[in-house]
Amino acid sequence: MLTHLPDCVFNGSFAMKELHLDFNFIRTLPARGFKYTKLERLSIANNRLLKLHSDAFSGIEVTLTNLDLSFNLMAEFSPAIKDLKSLLFLSLKGNYLKKLHKDDLRGCRKSLEILDLSGNCLTRIPSLTLQPLIKLTR
């Protein structure tokens, strides 16, 4: 079982569009850890992620369309997600999120179609967080 991702594991020596790291014990993601991958779909569900480095998805902001971070241990919305411009699907289901801020989904406001926040501890979602999501269907 993986507990972390080494900084240089994805160094551009091979191309991939989809990566599943589900059901491990990953606690953190390195900054720019996926930079050379051109990933479109990334699943890190059912791990031990507490928080993400703000640059965890640097290098794949434009290519990443599906991100599954469900069933982790995150209590705060990660700044790493804010700049994912092509994101269509985001699952944060089953975490410990307590609130969202109005700019948390600003990067994907023109692309996000599916957002799953079920099973969290949300007490507050400002209307300005969801209102700009023009393509959100569920």
TrEMBL record:
It comes from the Eukaryota. Keywords: Leucine-rich repeat, Repeat. The keyword Methyltransferase does not apply. It holds the Pfam family LRR_8. PROSITE patterns: LRR (PS51450). This is Vasorin.
